[in-house]
Amino acid sequence: MFSSQAQENESDNNSPSVDSEQRTPPKAKGRGFIPSTAKPTVEVTIGKVGVEVAESGSSTAKLTAAIAAAKAGAETENAENANDWVDVNEAEEESNGPTIHQAAAQGEFQTVAHLLNSGQATVNDRDQQGATPLHWAAISNHVVVARFLIDAGADVNAVGSDLMATPLHWAARNGNLATVTLLLNHGADPALRDGQGFNALHLSVHSMNSMLVLFLIYTSIDIDTPDALHHTPLMWAAYQGDPSTVDILLKHNASVSKVDNTQFTALHWAVVKGNKLCIRKLLDAGADAKAKEENGKTPSDMATELNKVDVWRSALREAGRRRDGEPRVTLFDECIPSECVLGRRHVDYESYVLAVLADPGFIHKCQSQEEQKQLVIELANKGILDIRHFCATCLIKKPLRSKHCKICNRCVARFDHHCPWIFNCIGVRNHRPFMIFLIMMIAAISSFLYLCIEYLSTTSSSYQPIPSQPCILPSTICAWFQHDTWTLGLCVWVGLQLTWSIGLFMMQSYQIAAAKTTNEMANFHRYSYLSRRGGAKVREHIVAALSAGPGAASAAQVGEDESGFGDHARVNNNELGDNSLTGRGRAVQRLQEQSLSDTSAYEDRFNSGCLKLFVGRSRKRRYRVPENNNPFDFGCWNNCADFWTQGNGGMLQNVDWYGLYDVPLIERTVTRRNGGYVAVAATDDNV
């Protein structure tokens, strides 16, 4: 792919064409399996087409048409091969039953176990392609089957298929993080190369799974390892237009100056793809905008040839570069720092500027790569290394209710929104001052309008009509316009701001009363603790740690119960101790005590929906959370008290929003009392 695209940029190229069949990613075939047609599969099959176009001196338009034709041809070929293989396997299954390879590909654990236990197959049997059952379990991401095969003695580094690939290669090629983690934990070698010269890191980049790339980086594999044609993982990510993977590679010191066998840098390949974000990230990382490939063409020259000048110039502008690629230097930003003009003390700490520049709750980043490595490995082993639990930009574990702000480029605890008025995020530390700011602003606008009206009413005289300038407004308003047009115009403009300021305040007040943030209101379907309809294919692993208190994680029990309900955790009161309860634990304890003394009051709150929490195991029955449940909602009064007292007067006291990673499932025994249901704390006797 890279070689053919590079040769396209010269009119007379005598380099030998690269046989595309030697560089085609593995076509995984099997019962019911349709080969992936993701980008690497399609792109590397255009080698011959690209060379032929380059040798004939065709234009960019012809190259584009050739690439499109090659993509269509590759997809058709893959589909035909898959259908043929499926027909053959179905015929074999009808006559002989499924083979161990077919069962592994389908995740049929019982069939695999039966074939092994009965002696009809072994864990290292080869199929027609030379692949083992572990290959098929790996490519289909059937972790349970893969673990069973490994425990039974399967070779994790077995080389098979036409491309001499290992199970790790197959899993990485499809972006199967769970299977890759399993294989690496059992001794798979990520540095091994397949028949195309790709190792696990190259193939993970091909899969465009940025979390898988991040995990493999911490296996001590060389981040700049080249493939057979000297293309680094960064070059592949740039060509595929994958900004998240590009960002991860750059954060881990991937070289932007490496060149392939045609002297293309990663920036050249980003321009070929035309992804502005990838180009900008490479420029921000110090990529040379004047680097020349073997024919003397810079990225700017290639952008001109490929009709991507607008994308190139936009990326340069956003990266603070001039059109020639040199950094743009402005007089005020560089030569006269703001501290010299205003004084650092006034910029950082004084009065209103303090509210504007205040820390909204930025989450501290891991300082060392060793800490980051341990965190990534821990999350991968728990099966939660994904964008919901880990921020690939800040390289931190994301607490519950936090979000990464693209403008501030930081993760913010209990993120509400980014406010353009103060050019700052609204989070756990400045949400209350922001509400006070809204109240004061509304009061100031109202006072200003009142003063303007009083001023105009007192000083203006009666309206004197002017025939050449008729006024269709009421005579009083016309008199005010005639007396002081500027003041009345300013009054009208300020009055318009009052309308949406009041609207914003009312919306924020409602969200505070409902214990939700603006981000959660807009994206509730993305958060499992607000809605279980997200359809996550992998079960969430509940850690049951309320605030970062010691012993909370060790007291959690994860998995399904006998009733089939998933994702529950149990907090053992004996292990935690009464004094270790923080935040929500104490809140529930207070509610439980309150229920014994004031049953009716508790029933009103509980039945309102604000207090329906996650529930744990009891002898009699387990209740599952409604899909629209909000575990942070303790009722309007308690929610407002918690907000305005900064967590000291409501139910959620002493909650560490920087370390709250999941909502625990509270144990309850539901009993009938006085016509209503009362929640009582579960003990060891009734669990």
Automatic annotation (TrEMBL):
<dbReference type="InterPro" id="IPR036770">
    <property type="entry name" value="Ankyrin_rpt-contain_sf"/>
</dbReference>
<keyword id="KW-0040">ANK repeat</keyword>
<keyword id="KW-0449">Lipoprotein</keyword>
<dbReference type="InterPro" id="IPR002110">
    <property type="entry name" value="Ankyrin_rpt"/>
</dbReference>
<keyword id="KW-0808">Transferase</keyword>
<keyword id="KW-0812">Transmembrane</keyword>
<feature type="repeat" description="ANK">
    <location>
        <begin position="129"/>
        <end position="161"/>
    </location>
</feature>
<dbReference type="GO" id="GO:0016020">
    <property type="term" value="C:membrane"/>
</dbReference>
<dbReference type="Pfam" id="PF00023">
    <property type="entry name" value="Ank"/>
</dbReference>
<feature type="repeat" description="ANK">
    <location>
        <begin position="262"/>
        <end position="294"/>
    </location>
</feature>
<dbReference type="Pfam" id="PF01529">
    <property type="entry name" value="DHHC"/>
</dbReference>
<feature type="repeat" description="ANK">
    <location>
        <begin position="229"/>
        <end position="261"/>
    </location>
</feature>
<keyword id="KW-0564">Palmitate</keyword>
<feature type="compositionally biased region" description="Polar residues">
    <location>
        <begin position="1"/>
        <end position="19"/>
    </location>
</feature>
<dbReference type="Pfam" id="PF12796">
    <property type="entry name" value="Ank_2"/>
</dbReference>
<keyword id="KW-0472">Membrane</keyword>
<keyword id="KW-0677">Repeat</keyword>
<protein>
    <recommendedName>
        <fullName>Palmitoyltransferase</fullName>
        <ecNumber>2.3.1.225</ecNumber>
    </recommendedName>
</protein>
<comment type="similarity">
    <text>Belongs to the DHHC palmitoyltransferase family. AKR/ZDHHC17 subfamily.</text>
</comment>
<feature type="region of interest" description="Disordered">
    <location>
        <begin position="1"/>
        <end position="40"/>
    </location>
</feature>
<dbReference type="InterPro" id="IPR001594">
    <property type="entry name" value="Palmitoyltrfase_DHHC"/>
</dbReference>
<keyword id="KW-0012">Acyltransferase</keyword>
<feature type="repeat" description="ANK">
    <location>
        <begin position="163"/>
        <end position="195"/>
    </location>
</feature>
<feature type="transmembrane region" description="Helical">
    <location>
        <begin position="434"/>
        <end position="453"/>
    </location>
</feature>
<feature type="domain" description="Palmitoyltransferase DHHC">
    <location>
        <begin position="387"/>
        <end position="523"/>
    </location>
</feature>
<keyword id="KW-1133">Transmembrane helix</keyword>
<dbReference type="GO" id="GO:0019706">
    <property type="term" value="F:protein-cysteine S-palmitoyltransferase activity"/>
</dbReference>
